[in-house]
Hints:
Chain A is mainly α. Chain A has 12 helices and 2 strands.
Amino acid sequence: xxxxxxxxxxxxxxxxxxxxxxxxxxxxxxxxxxxxxxxxxxxxxxxxxxxxxxxxxxxxxxxxxxxxxxxxxxxxxxxxxxxxxxxxxxxxxxxxxxxxxxxxxxxxxxxxxxxxxxxxxxxxxxxxxxxxxxxxxxxxxxxxxxxxxxxxxxxxxxxxxxxxxxxxxxxxxxxxxxxxxxxxxxxxxxxxxxxxxxxxxxxxxxxxxxxxxxxxxxxxxxxxxxxxxxxxxxxxxxxxxxxxxxxxxxxxxxxxxxxxxxxxxxxxxxxxxxxxxxxxxx
Amino acid sequence: xxxxxxxxxxxxxxxxxxxxxxxxxxxxxxxxxxxxxxxxxxxxxxxxxxxxxxxxxxxxxxxxxxxxxxxxxxxxxxxxxxxxxxxxxxxxxxxxxxxxxxxxxxxxxxxxxxxxxxxxxxxxxxxxxxxxxxxxxxxxxxxxxxxxxxxxxxxxxxxxxxxxxxxxxxxxxxxxxxxxxxxxxxxxxxxxxxxxxxxxxxxxxxxxxxxxxxxxxxxxxxxxxxxxxxxxxxxxxxxxxxxxxxxxxxxxxxxxxxxxxxxxx
Lengths: 282, 265
């Protein structure tokens, strides 16, 4: 009988993640059902006030903004990432092209945001150019709206969508498509019954890698959203640091958590059911 | 046959134009930063070539270099600790069954899928509850926490390339568990451990959101410093800083590519 060393090996990770992840996370969960303290913090009394307050008009507007921005970002990112990943996977220079995708991935996140401020800001390149040649009389505000947030979110998440898509397309056996066509399938049949199902796990990963960071984003709308467009992440920060309403910050965090976990479970399910179906057919 | 060739050629051209559009999208803004870092004036009108902003960056930005030092300290410390904890965890999870294994699997998967802000907010509330003063130490703790799951995943991926019979063989030949760990398991995991470490360094250097929530007075990091420049007044020195960081990330990307190639061959 080999002695079970599993417990020993996992002791540090077990302790660390319990103390610094599970306990802090439980604070959010429990805190969202407590009353707010006078100067931040919680009062130990049960209350669902924080969740009730989510129904306010402001919160409804912010939630709709958040959903719109993250869905638009995800759709556009995946649509752009698919042909890009396809091209890389089918190219004889795969490694070199892939490297071109990885460089922005290594570049500091805030610098990538800053690059867009330098291009689109009120004193940015585009405005300067159009003012100088006399098309604009004065700078036009290109940032500080929904579309600026979406543009920059696509910019930051694109490598995360391209890499998993590349991984599945690269493994895909393209002779299967020819075989399907030879056996009489139409072009769209071979596309939707062979290619899409087989690369679906990659598409799901790309969707998750784009949607969850977009939905819970705080930095991008904080920097280029201005005062008009706020997302749930900004409200959490505001409730925590300015309004000092911790239960409210905790309740919104719970909403973000729930949606992220549901998305992951849903997509895992889609992936595994598709895999079973394909396996069954073969 | 010709028809198929023509069709695939056209398809290729379409995906190719998407690819080059993406590249233009990726690199045009970065190129703008590089060009304007050499601008003499403050504005986005190119008035003349100058190294002025690089001078400002290197000789007149003490605060920035202070936060750069903090960033390095945090990255190296948190990467070392999370690599040790994550590697041991990976060995335990991959090869053994034990009580609460399912719990550990869920708990080490969650920090990866949750939005960063959740980790930041929960840790801030935790530190406040513990009356821990916010600063470098809380940032390091937070970074170790979000790095562990990535190291774990990377090392597990490496372990899955090996057969457990190697371990059994070591045991059969009389090795103690400690011998096996130090002389068999760790050496064969080295590529995984190194890439986990590198990943941890990268994530730590790049992290803004979690650091933003758990930082305290005086504990600035490079991303926090850039953020305050973005929010409260731009100096063209940030162009120069961006270029240095872009060049740095290029070097990192090349190095990691070389390193991986070297390790896996």
